[in-house]
Amino acid sequence: MLAGRVRSVRREMGNPLYRNAYALMLNTVVNSGFGLLYWIFAARTYSPEEVGRGSALVNLMMLISVLTTLNFGQALIRFLPTAGNDSARLVRLAYAVSAGLGTVAAAGVMIYLNLVHSPGDPLWVSPGFAIWFVVSTAAWSIFNLQDQVFTGLRSAMWVALENGVYGVVKLVLLVAVSFTSVSDGVFTSWSAPVLALLVPFTLLIARRLVPRHAAASAAEPGAGAPAPATLRRYMAGDYVGQVFNQATSSFLPVLIIQLLGPQQSAYLLPAQTVFIAMNMLSVAITSSLVVEGSRDPARAHLLARSILRRIAVIVLPAALLVALAAPLLLLLYGREYAENASLLLQLLMISMLPRVVVTLWMTRSRLANRTGPLAVQQLVHAVVVLGGTLLLSPSLGLDAVGWSWLAAELLLAVFLAPIVVRWLRGTHPVPARGPAPTDPGAGEVTEVIGRIDDGDKDNDGGSGPAGPADGGSGPAGPADDGPTRRIPRVRE
Fold it and tell me: Alpha-carbon distance 471 to 468, whole Å?
């Protein structure tokens, strides 16, 4: 029995779809765990004022990075698996755009904080720290993109390792800096390990993983980077959707402060943090589906079924367990948190059930390069959550957030479920991957639709019998010895 289970685990981990999904889920757990420990250590090592300033600067750096990477990370997950010999160029482009825009935006913010605020103000920055902040923001942008690069290269185990090492080093440095005279120890301990780890992992990607991936994927039909117009269109819709998503998560605490006061906003924080971590598990496992589905669109619905089973076995039971244990979990923060935020956390966990449908629909949209609807979907979600909170908070208090969030997920799930069901059944497949936008006769993905007798075999360029199209089973029969016209599929 033990040997059978070992073989089953080896088969599971031998499949890139599951191996990368589990690696990304492990990374989510690692990040969440080290993040919790970091702020606990910070609260016990530094004064509240230092922790508050450090937290504000860290979040400011991450916000600038999110807004200036243009959601390039999702584009890497979608297109890097099939980039072939263009893999290195696509990675360099992502690094250059994200780090360049991050540098410009961070410099503008630092100039503003230095000129507008006076020394002694919590948000004033010295010229020396401003330079450090700008460098750190550019490095953070690349460091974050490397998670998506590893994922797109089907080497997601490096993501968990990289972030695990970063979490350990960050904790050690947090305590070590507290014994020195270094100012802004919280921000320094957060950003310095990024610069240290960036070099070895960048070299790993550039010298080993990208060349290996390019050699393995270059021979696949349609290999190559997407057309610039396709990439821009994909990133534009995805970026707008990301802005709406950030508006929901980032503006919600501000809205609660205005409606219910700072105390209720404090009660929101742990429930929102736990929910975001749980939601990231679903995002992690479907990121692996995007990678493998982009390599084999014809089987994407079969891969989605497999991923759905694992979500049902891992993510949903975990969400229900957290919902049941919500009062006990929130007691870790204090009795007031348990009394005021238990129902909120339970409602957020229950919303994970319809969220599965929405997540699968988002995955299919990415595989079909249709990110415009993603922006609309996240706009609807933001309107329902923020609008519902505004309308219901006078009567329901903080629980209005939970009811509004659940209503948004249910509304979207009901509307999107028919599309997801048809996809899972294979009746609404993702459009097949087409050729890279190069020479029309070079490396196109084709589909045999019939024989056309041109009277002269040489005119068609055929040199032998035509085999089955797109991986069809069985060799070509005797009747296929004539020239066959192949019609290229056009990449969207």
Answer: 6
